[in-house]
Specification:
The chain is mainly alpha-helical. It has one helix and no strands.
């Protein structure tokens, strides 16, 4: 996230209604997103 250290708590998956979201503060790059996808698949038993 733009060079800042951050964490994704992949085992604490939640759904949130889009109306509860505020202004976007950052975004994941392609490599970070792939890491999240791999971890999520592992937690959900899809890999």
């Amino acid at each position: 996230m733009r060079g800042r250290a951050s964490r994704v708590m992949i085992d604490q998956l939640r759904t949130v209604d889009v109306t509860r979201l505020g202004k976007r503060i950052s975004a994941l790059d392609a490599t970070e997103l792939l890491d999240v996808e791999v971890a999520l698949k592992r937690v959900l038993g899809l890999s």
